[in-house]
Specification:
- The chain has 183 residues and is an all-alpha fold.
- 73% of the residues lie in helices and 2% in strands.
- The chain has a two-stranded antiparallel sheet with strand order 1-2.
- The longest helix has 33 residues.
- It is globular and about 55 Å long.
- It starts with a helix and ends in an 11-residue tail after the last helix.
Length: 183
């Protein structure tokens, strides 16, 4: 049984939009999403590299980006290295999405779809743990960070739905070869 067949069987409740943000078809939306991923992850990569470099140069015990959390130097460095690795992997995945969308190659688009599922599971667990941490540490004034994260996750889920819809259209042969079709 193919991956699409398994996904179609278990993910039938996911909508199949025809357009992304009401302005282009799902192929064009996938291309835009791929470029947003590339640009955002390159910026994240550069930012983390700069922060790591400054941390090493200043020999700070606690980097300012982690205030008010109590994080020691090793934990902060490990976190930033993890973000760097995540950024590199995300750049590759977004690049594969772009290649698949520009060339109508469903296997390359599938990489984005599958990694998106893994990301969402990890993000939801992380947000739950973060919410518990805020409650346990009586830092409810920082709950806005959790709310912003949930809103951002909602946008990413919408992007994933658009790309998944494009993947399904590629597989069933109904994908448009023109990326930006107006109304």
């Amino acid at each position: 049984m193919s991956i699409l067949a398994v996904m179609e069987k278990h993910l039938t409740w996911i909508p199949k939009p025809e357009r992304c943000c009401c302005m282009c078809n799902v192929r064009g939306g996938s291309i835009i999403i791929g470029w947003l991923g590339e640009i955002g992850n390159v910026l994240k990569l550069v930012l983390c590299a700069v922060i790591l470099t400054q941390m090493q140069a200043k020999r700070e015990d606690v980097p300012s980006i982690f205030h008010p959390f109590h994080v020691d130097r090793e934990a902060g460095t490990a976190f930033l290295v993890g973000v760097l690795i995540d950024s590199l992997l995300s750049i590759v995945v977004s690049g594969l999405l772009l290649y698949g969308a520009y060339n109508d190659k469903p296997r390359f688009v599938l990489v984005y779809v599958l990694t998106g599922i893994v990301f969402f599971v990890m993000a939801i667990v992380t947000l739950i743990l973060y919410g518990v941490y805020l409650c346990m540490e009586h830092q409810l004034s920082r709950m806005y960070l959790l709310i912003i994260s949930v809103l951002f996750l909602g946008i990413l889920i919408y992007f994933w739905i658009v790309v998944f819809s494009y993947y399904r259209r590629l597989m069933d042969g109904t994908a448009s070869s023109v990326p930006f079709v107006n109304f």
